[in-house]
Structures are given as C-alpha cells and as structure tokens.
Amino acid sequence: MSVLSTKVEIEHDFAKLGHNNSTSFFITYETSLDKKESKYCKNVSLFLPLDGQYETKISFEISSKLLNDPGTMPNFNSSRVILSDLSVLTRRDSVWAAECNGNETCVPNLTFTSYISFDHNKDPYIIGSSETETINMTVQNIGEMAYDPCVRVHIIGVNVFMIPTDCQYEGSSDEIRLLCEPSRPIRTNNTWITGQIELEMKHLTNLDRNVTINMHLFDHCDDVATLNITKTIFVKAESGGIIAKGETDIGSIVNMTKEDIEENGKKIQHIYTINNNGRFNWKNLEVRVNLQKKPYIKYGSTPIIVIVYSPLKNSYPSCQVVSQNKTSMFYVCLIESLMKTVEIAKILIPMYIVPGVLDGILDKDKNVTTMSSVDLKLIGNDSKHESIITTITFQEASPVSIETLIIAIIVGICIFVIIIVILYRFGFLRRKKRDELNKLKRELKRQTIIRRSTMPSQALQAPDRSQLLESIEEANDNTQDLKQDKPAKQDPSLKK
C-alpha cells in the first residue's frame, strides 16, 4: 500500500488553518494511493478573524512526500506507486484575503477631525490657567476597509503627561513624536477615536510664546501622508505675580551719635525681597539695580549680593555693572529661575556710613539720606520699580536724670525685698530643726521648775522663794508657747 503525506503551512499574523476542530499555522494529512486515481483533492479551511489585517497577502507552502517508497524497499513490487523525475512535491504561493474590490490594494477614504482644548482661535492661552490640556482626534472611513491607517503627532513647546493605549512614542527623546494606530481595521462607515492625549501645561514659563501641534494622517502607515494639519496656539504670560519689597535692616531712620559720626561709623543694609506668587515659573528675570554715590556711603568689594533660596539648592546669581556717572552706579542681575511659591530671591546691598565725613554736616536740624532702587524687567514693556530711602539723623547723647536714677534704685530695692520674702516663705534662710530646738529648751525648763516645786517648803529660804516664784512665772510663759506648738497635759503635782 502506497501513502502520500501532505503538509500545508501558512505565514500570516492573523490567518490560521483549521483541521480536526483546531487551528494552527500548519496541518499534515495522509492520502492512500491504492485507488490509483489521477487526481486527489482535499479542502483545507482557512480561518480569518474579522479584526485581522489582511491587506498583506497570506503566504502558503504545500509539500508532499511518498511513504513506503518502493525504491527504498528490498523487494520491488511493480504495483506500487513510484515517483518520477518530473514529480513536483512542493508549491509556494500567496493569496489576498482583504475585503476590498481592488486587486491587492484597498482604497479607504478617511476624514480627520481634531479638538485641542486650549485652542481658542485668536485668543491666546494664558499660561498657568490650567494644569493639563487635551488633544482628541477622530478618523472616519467612508471608503473601503482601512487595514493599516495611522496618525503621527509632533508636539513642540509643551510636555506630554499621558497618552492613550492606541498611541506610542517614536523617534528620539529630544522631540515629542507619537504614532497612533487603531487596534483593529476601520471598516466602511466606521469611526476610530484615537483617545485623549494629555498635555502638561504647568512647565510653561514666561519665555514660551506658542505651542505647535503637527498632525499627519496616513491611509497606509508606510506610505505618504494623505492629510497634514498644523495647529499653532499662542500662549501669554501675565507678570502680575512678581512682587518686590524693599527695607533697611535696622529701619528707615538711622540715628547717629556724635561718637558714631566722628569715630565709629555705622553699618546698614538695603534688602530687596522678590517673590513669585504667580501661576507659572519664571525664567531669566532681569533686575536693574541703581546705587547712589554719596561721600559718606561706602559699598563693599561686592556691592550687590543676590541669593535665590530654593528647597533643593540655593543659587547665587552674579551682577554686572553696566554704567555709572557722578551720582549713580547701574548694575544688571540675571535670576535664571524663580519657581512659583517655593523660591525667594533676596538682593542685599551692604553699606557703611564712613566716620568723619558727616562731622559738621549732620546736626539736630539737618538730616541726610541714601537711596537705592531696583527695576524688574518683565514681559514686553512691563516692569516693576521698588526703592529704599534711608534717613540718617543726629541723636544727642542725653545724660540720665536724677529722677530716673532714684526710681531705678527704688525699683531695684523692691525687687530685692520681694526675692528675699519669696525665698524665706519657701524655707530658705532658716536654720534646720530650729523649731525642734526651741521646743526642747522649753521642755527642759519646765522639768527643772517641777522638780524645784516638789522640795519641802520649810527648807526654802526667802531668797529661794522669790527665785521660785520667778521660775513659776517663766514656766507659765513657756507653757503658753508650748500650747501654740502642741497641747500638753499638766502634771498633777504642779497643782499641789
């Protein structure tokens, strides 16, 4: 008996072969050649899922081989089937299974619409007005089946916060490029919604002027774009959130005594505090500082010190002198970053009032001043101005009056007495066991008096009687003292 073994194998991402209630990419079956027919046929099922991509052809290969070949057997039997040199045992081909009318090509007709949430036509987007914005795209097919359409999106000027499942990043990390493809073909009169692309708007700064979104629609993703759309949304930053405040470290009025004017001098400092209370982070804030030239004011080797306090790391921008004349010096300080609410910039201007210069100029009827100012260059022609004026006055050294001295002495004595009373009430300044010692002395005197009172009266002489009476009076006094400490019973012998 001769048997022919046949293997059918296909190559495709979606199509499969069906055999014995199962599917796979290949099947094998055997055919008996005993009937010696000129042709043997067998139908093989091909399973095509509805959502599969079939614009690419399905490749297949059919191969056969003869089992129990008579040429390989020891005993030849002429009734068995043999293979000739003209036998073709393998065939390779492909088949196109797309649901289209054309030959090997589908012709979809796609229309594209997009919605950008912060595109307000001619009105610019105000930076900081929202944390995130969105892009939504819709593709509709009114032509043949669209097996491999896609939309490519190129976003410039803003970061992407979240992308839908139908989109993925492509290209280098320096640019934001998205490739969006449907998970299934777009059938005729069907619509594909790409999903929502979420943009992160909080990183826009005062330096940003616009956001550009390029969208390209492809009927076939590996072909040229059939539609190109560019949206440019202008953005605008408002400068109201930058606040500057100036003050002198020891007050706007500085008093100078004669000793300060002639010998000591005095140190003061102008302090400007710049806060960003706006809705976005500020970049490259330019601050122009104006310092007055006065003969009695001396600036340090670094006239201006800038500190930006940050939760991560403080920075120290430098200032450059740009011009000066006989009365003023002008500096420019560049603050590279001032994040909203979390960073604070301080501009410090240390000054020293030189001794000996104001002698003869400053008196009780005449004051002098020193001034500094800052100008913050904001957006366009917007700017903010802040200045500090410090008035230097003469203060006479007044002696202490007698009345003040007397009051001070009385108050000091009262405080001292109060302290002593408090210490005494809490047991300080007392001898330990003093009460017990006094009580013991009184008890000894009482016992002595009792013993004397029990002696025979005839033995007592006149001087001794008077002494005894004095002792009894003293004992009575001591008894009264003992009653205050602790009541005691009177000895019966004392009554006799």
TrEMBL record:
<dbReference type="Pfam" id="PF20805">
    <property type="entry name" value="Integrin_A_Ig_2"/>
</dbReference>
<dbReference type="GO" id="GO:0007157">
    <property type="term" value="P:heterophilic cell-cell adhesion via plasma membrane cell adhesion molecules"/>
</dbReference>
<dbReference type="InterPro" id="IPR032695">
    <property type="entry name" value="Integrin_dom_sf"/>
</dbReference>
<dbReference type="InterPro" id="IPR048285">
    <property type="entry name" value="Integrin_alpha_Ig-like_2"/>
</dbReference>
<feature type="compositionally biased region" description="Basic and acidic residues">
    <location>
        <begin position="480"/>
        <end position="496"/>
    </location>
</feature>
<keyword id="KW-0401">Integrin</keyword>
<keyword id="KW-0472">Membrane</keyword>
<keyword id="KW-1133">Transmembrane helix</keyword>
<dbReference type="GO" id="GO:0033627">
    <property type="term" value="P:cell adhesion mediated by integrin"/>
</dbReference>
<feature type="region of interest" description="Disordered">
    <location>
        <begin position="473"/>
        <end position="496"/>
    </location>
</feature>
<feature type="domain" description="Integrin alpha second immunoglobulin-like">
    <location>
        <begin position="100"/>
        <end position="217"/>
    </location>
</feature>
<keyword id="KW-0325">Glycoprotein</keyword>
<dbReference type="GO" id="GO:0007160">
    <property type="term" value="P:cell-matrix adhesion"/>
</dbReference>
<keyword id="KW-0812">Transmembrane</keyword>
<dbReference type="GO" id="GO:0007229">
    <property type="term" value="P:integrin-mediated signaling pathway"/>
</dbReference>
<dbReference type="GO" id="GO:0005178">
    <property type="term" value="F:integrin binding"/>
</dbReference>
<feature type="transmembrane region" description="Helical">
    <location>
        <begin position="405"/>
        <end position="424"/>
    </location>
</feature>
<dbReference type="GO" id="GO:0008305">
    <property type="term" value="C:integrin complex"/>
</dbReference>
<protein>
    <recommendedName>
        <fullName>Integrin alpha second immunoglobulin-like domain-containing protein</fullName>
    </recommendedName>
</protein>
<dbReference type="GO" id="GO:0009897">
    <property type="term" value="C:external side of plasma membrane"/>
</dbReference>
